[in-house]
Each structure stands twice: as C-alpha cells, then as structure tokens.
Amino acid sequence: MFTFKDLTEIRPNEWVISPSYRSDMRLPVHIFASRKMLEQVLVDRSLEQAVNASTLPGLVGNVIVMPDVHQGYGFPIGGVAASQYPTGMISPGAIGYDINCGVRLLASTIKAELVSAYLGDLAAAMNHFCPSGVGSEGLVRISNSDLEQVLHLGSRWALKKGYASEADLLRTEESGCVEGALPDKVSGHAKKRGLTQLGSLGSGNHFIEIDTVDEIFNPEAAAVMGLQCGCLVIQIHCGSRGLGHQICTDYVQQLQGAPQRYHYSLPDRELVCAPMDSTEGQAYLGAMRAAANFAFANRQMLAWAARRAFEEVFAGKVKNWQLHQVYDLAHNIGKIETHIIEGKELKVCVHRKGATRAFGPNTPGVPPEYAMIGQPVIIPGSMGTASWVLTGTNVSMQRSFGSCCHGAGRLMSRAQAKRSVRGEVLIRDLEKQGIHVKAGSLPGLAEETPAAYKDVDEVIKVVVDTGLANKTARLKPLVVIKG
Amino acid sequence: MDSQISEGVSEVSHTADQALHIKATSLEQLFVKAAEGMYSLAGVKTDQSILSARQLIVSGIDPESLLVAFLSELLYLLEEEKIAFHYFNLGISADSITCSITGSPVSQLRKSIKAVTFHNLKIQTTAEGYETTLVFDV
Question: Is pLDDT at B57 greater than 90 in this prediction?
C-alpha cells in the first residue's frame, strides 16, 4: 500500500509518484488531490492501479490521476493517460466497459420556485418517458440498418430521425459523431444488445436528475451557456449500454495474446493493449468509436424523451417550457488529440477513464460559441448533493491533457453502502430535503447513498485551485430518477 | 469485509465494483461456482418449471481467459435471452470449453453486471484444489 512517503507534493494539491518507485514504471504519475483527499485515496488500490497504468508501452507525458479517483479494474477510475499516435498502444481496459459513459446538461428558463407544485408530476412523467432499470429496453426498437447508421453517425442519426436539433449537435462533444467508426468490427453479440437498448438509461450509477441553478460564479460563461439562477436544468448520465460493455469484453479477450505478439509484459491482464497502427488496434479503435456514437445517440434519445416529459407537464401552464442543450460530454473514451508534451506538439490517443475532457478557450474541438469561455465541463455530484458546471482552461491543456474530474468518486463499497442505509430510509431523507426520488430498485438506490461518495465540493475545490477548471455554476437537485 | 455467498464462494470488498473469491476442488467446479456466484451477485431468480438446454463452446489462451469467456457468454445470455443456467457439464481443454448447460427463464434480476474483468485474475492451485478472485464491473 502507498503512504505519503511515496509521494512528493510538487505544487499545492499536485503530487508525484516518481518512476523510480517501481522498476516497470515508464513515466511519473501525477495526482491532483488535497492531503485530506489523498488520505481517502490511500485506503484502496487506486494508486497501485495508476502505477500499473504507467507501465503501458508507448505512453507519453505523465499518467494523471484526478481527485475523484477510486479503485477500478486495471486502470483506476479518474485516470488519464496518453499514448503517441499511431505507434503507441490503445488499451480497451484503460477506457472501460461503458464506452462513452457521459453526461448531458439541458437547461430551461423555468423558475423552479414557480413550478414546485408540479415537481411530483414532472418526476412521474420523466420516469414514464425515459426507460430505466436493470435490463431496460430502449425507447425505440431499431432495425439492423438503423443500428449500422447509429454506429456510424451517432447523434446525426437522431437528427435525421427527428430526435435532435442542429443546436443539440453543435453543443455535443465531437458534434455527437466520432469519425472513423467501424461497425463491421463490432461483434454480433454487441449489435444484438444494441438493437433493443437505444434510448435507455440502464441502472447502477446512471441517472436523470432535475436540478435548479443554485448559484452562478461566472455570469459571462453562464450567459453563453443559457444558465439562469433559480431555473430548472436536467442532467442525463448514461453510456453505450450492453453494446459498449460487449465491445470492451470482446476486445479485452481478443487482446489476451497481444503481450506475446507485441513483446511486452504487464502487471495486470486487464490492461492488455495493441499498437494503434496494428490490425487489432485499428479494429478496437473503430469498434470503440462505434460504441461512442451509440452512446451519443442514446443520450440524445433520452433528451428527446425528457423534452416530451417537460411538454406533458408544463405545456399550457408555463409560457416557455423548452429545454436547450448546454453540452454533452464523454468521461470514458479514447480520443486522438494534439497536445504539447515536453515542448513538442504530439498527436496522441488520450485514454480518459472516469475523466472529463476540459479543453480551454480557443482550443480546436470546442464549439465556436464556447471558444471564448472554454469547453463546458459537467460534474455530477452524488445523489442529493450539488453538481457543478465548470469550464476547461489552458492550465488543463498543459497539465492534464485537457482533462478534469468526472464526479464525486466512490469511497464506500456497494455492500458497505447497503449496510449503512436502507433504500426506503434514503428516499424519506431525500424527500425531507425536498428531493423527489423515483428508483427502480431500493437496494440499488442504497448502493448510491451520498455517504458512499466523496464530497463533490472538495473535488471541485481541487480542480479549481489547481487551475484545471473554472467554476461557472452550482446545481441543486430537485428530482432524481434512478434505474 | 468478506461475506459468504455459498460453499466456497464469498464476496470480497471492492470500492466501486464487486468481487468474488472462489475455491473449488476441481477446475470444472471452480467455473461452475463462479457462474453460480455471478448469478447470485446479479440477484437472479428463475422459473425452474421451464427448462432450456444449450451447447456452448468458448475459446481462450489459458484457464483464466477461458473462465472470463465462459462467464461473459453466460452474462450475454442472461441479458439478451433472460436465461440463467443451473446445470453444467463442462469439458475444459487447454484452449476451449465445450459445455452442455441447462437453465430456466429469469423471473427476477436485481442488478446489471456490465462485465467480467481480467483484473489481477489468476487461478491458483492449492492443496485443496483451485482458487481465484474475480472482479465484475457493475
């Protein structure tokens, strides 16, 4: 287990594990965390997993660890690593099973205090229109040819079918479509799972949350995003469902022979990888991009359903009930990007697993309307606690491959969480705080108790104090829909 | 804190995901206990008045990859066809498993398991037989 003796604080809230710590490390590990948060991190195996990640061949710069880090499998959740394109490695396990798990934020101009009487109806409508829960099927059952298009086009497919607007796509990472998807590299099992799940939330830590904008810290950025204090907004947190899980499963299995073929060794088989320019690397990249497109379309479909719920509850009662998109982003993905590393401009594949892209102002890839303020970064808190809207900075471009945290980060195991509170009690406690909850499973809800997570405000303080992001607004939950 | 699920199968603490420690007297039994443990984590209940038989063949490069491939196939059938299996007749070779399995439709599924991982996976031989720890992404 690590101790503080193994870490050097090089700047306030930035710590380094030197490559001399273990002989197989190829690069340093940089951890963004306060001393108090690090004490929590040292309890599990997050840092050992980050050190394992630093042994991947072809990485450049540093392995980055965010303050919301926790132990995962292979690569820690809250980790970022970049490999040189095209000869460096791509590792499916360093991206994760829920490819393009991410968050979408929609905003309204409806004042929460004027519609408090309708929040129960809104929770019911949202639960009705947005399929959620274990094994849930999607809003639409699509044909094989539609699925091929979803995998190629992502949210552009949704636009063609009338489930999206051009404005939605403009305010989505990669405009909702990662180029270079290869649906023919997606297995039959994965496609079969995708056919029935488009437009579904799933379960676990995925949710839809209706919040109010509680406080604005940067009025200029909030105005550009269309965020108004006291108004309703919606967060949608989900990913590529069974299709993405199956793609990662297939490729981690297929690459088990890769260490022998490409002459490398790893401390953990979950990190298997292949050079991006190899046949296997190209196949995974193409399949992973197809899953990312599925996830963009999935969140787009759920946004369409959320708008139907708003219409059902507010049409005829509220003057302007429309929801506009603020942004949609991925926090489990591998992206080909250009970064300055040790003074050189390099094209790299940035693996983000439980980490959000946080590009600074005027960085290519940021929607034109956000060019001046930086990319919006949406950080959901734990259930019942604040969420945050931030913007990316030039510091994140220099120090974390344009990346930031992705949430509060788990502290407690699921079993421990269930022992600490019962689902019914949690619902009652949240309702006392004025938060409506719709949950598919009470034990599942208990696993997501806020006590099982770190304090999101402390996570935000670290990323803001270290300059990785700037605060725009804090959100306060009113309605939570869990699968 | 570990909690026992059934004989030879216990749940091991993990911050975000779920893990099982499995002990068995033979490799075949280890695979079967792992399947039963996985169904238990998912909170599966079945209607055993209806039976469905299948033949499965999965391949891998060693016992660990065979175990992950076997469980991943069962997970696929659980999610896609809503079937869980309770009778297993396994033939394990160096690079494949051939099995006859019998199961029943799922009447209750409490939790979605996203995947069976290779994280720190090693099947070890012991004086009593075999043991391993499996981490599931949930």
Answer: yes
CA B136/CA B118 separation, integer angstroms: 9
Q: What is the pLDDT of residues A329-381, one digit of tens each?
A: 999 999 999 999 999 999 999 999 999 999 999 999 999 999 999 999 999 99
Contact assessment for residue B42 and residue B7, using Cβ atoms and an 8 Å cutoff: no
Q: Is the pLDDT of residue A130 over 80?
A: yes
Beta pairing partners, B90: B99
Write the DSSP symbol of residue A482.
Answer: E
Q: Do A73 and B119 touch (CB under 8 A)?
A: yes
Which positions 21-80 of B are in contact with A (Cβ < 8 Å)?
60-62, 64-65, 68-69, 72, 76, 79-80
Nearest to B16 among A97, A257, A410 (CB): A410
- For tokens 């599990």, the residue is A44
Cβ contact, residue pair A412, B15, below 8 Å: yes
Closest by Cβ to B72, choosing from A192, A202, A249: A249
Neighbours of A161 (CB within 10 A): 17
**What does pTM read for this prediction?**
0.96
Which pLDDT does position A152 carry in this prediction?
A: 98
Which pLDDT value is given to residue A471?
Answer: 98
Residue A370, phi then psi, degrees to nearest 5: -105, 5
- Nearest neighbour of A410 by CB, restricted to B15, B61, B121: B15
**In one letter, which amino acid is A482?**
K
**Is the N-terminal amide bond of A275 cis, ω within 30° of 0?**
no
The separation between the first and the last C-alpha atoms of chain B, rounded to the nearest angstrom, is 19
Please check the confidence at residue A193 and state whether its pLDDT lies above 90.
yes
Report the complex ipTM.
0.95
Chain A CB within 8 Å of residue B12 CB? no
Report the distance separating Cα A280 and Cα A222, nearest Å. Answer: 43
Angstrom distance (rounded) from CA A56 to CA A265: 9
What lies within 8 Å, CB to CB, of A117 at 6+ separation is none
B3-26, pLDDT tens digit by residue? 888 999 999 988 778 999 999 999
* B127: β partners: none
B114: nearest CA partner in chain A: A245
